[in-house]
Amino acid sequence: MKSDFTKLAGQTIARLLKPLAALLVAAVLGVVPAVRAQAPASAAQGDTVLVVGDSLSAEYGLKRGTGWVPLLEKQIAGEKKSAKVVNASISGDTTSGGRSRLPALLAQHKPAVVVIELGGNDALRGLPLDMTEQNLSAMTQAAKKAGARVLLVGMQVPPNYGSAYAANFSGLFAKVAKAEKVALVPFFLKGVADAADPVAAFQADRIHPNEQSQPRMLANVWPELKKLLK
Questions:
Q1: Residues 114-150: tens digit of each pLDDT
Q2: Where would a tag sit more exposed on the chain, N or C end, judged by fewer CB atoms within 10 A?
Q3: CA dihedral defined by 222, 96, 208, 76, rounded to 10 degrees?
Q4: For residue 88, which of 51, 54, 113, 136 has the smallest C-alpha distance?
């Protein structure tokens, strides 16, 4: 009886080991694609474009999916480029807020491209221009240090802020872009705020562009952003 039990146990072990052995052989020969198929999945997603902005990029007052950032996603898909867009914009944000948030965003998303669209709220609050410049410089440097290419989106303020303030504010974006050797959109709202009938391009608050203006805003950004995408 002992020999019969030993024989039966041996047969059972053999049946259990046979599929495992076959699997090991298949893996060595490269016949198991399921494991390998997952390897390039992250690479297939392509570059990540991180947008760090304020209400102009956060779809303030707009129907979801109609802002320039969602339109950017469609533009990238239409251009057959392998990239995804992460919109980390917050309404009311300033360059100080963006600077404090950026390190965690860089660590989390590891973007290949960072679009910085901040500064408008600094001007609206009358914050010192040198502080805005320092914050934009720090954000640009942090993004570059993380291995990202940077696109700085410039803004302007109405002349009622004073010609000197308006000129200095507009010029600081170009100044930072030149010093850090990064791409620049000179004026985000070109063709919107300076349109023949600008009131028709804005929401009722006359601060935030309406839905019809979003394609124009994308058109201002896309030529420079496209150069940064592989």
A1: 999 999 999 999 999 999 999 999 999 999 999 999 9
A2: N
A3: 20
A4: 51
- The verdict on whether 47 is a catalytic residue reads no
Please pick, among 3, 4, 197, 205, the residue that the annotation labels catalytic.
205
Find the mean pLDDT for residues 182-201. Answer: 96
Helix axis angle, 129-145 to 95-109, nearest 10°: 10
Question: Per the structure block, which two tokens stand in for 220?
Answer: 């201002």
Does 205 participate in catalysis according to the annotation?
A: yes
Tokens encoding 210: 């309406």
Relative orientation angle of helices 68-78 and 214-228, to the nearest 10 degrees:
50
**Number of CB atoms found within 10 A of residue 127's CB:** 16
Q: Is 3 exposed, middle or buried (0-12, 13-18, 19+ CB in 10 A)?
A: exposed
For the stretch 1-39, pLDDT in tens is: 444 444 444 444 444 334 434 333 333 333 333 333 323
Query: Which three-class secondary structure string do you get for 36-98?
Result: HHCCCHHHHCCEEEEEEECCCCCCCCCCCCCCHHHHHHHHHHHCCCCEEEEECCCCCCCHHHH
Catalytic option among 55, 57, 137, 213: 55
What is the pLDDT, as a whole number, of residue 45?
A: 58
First vs last C-alpha separation in the chain? 73
- Cα gap 92→122, rounded to integer Å: 9
Residue 55 falls in the annotated catalytic set: yes
The two three-digit tokens of residue 125, written as one number: 């609050």
Q: Which of the following is catalytic: 91, 96, 109, 208?
A: 208
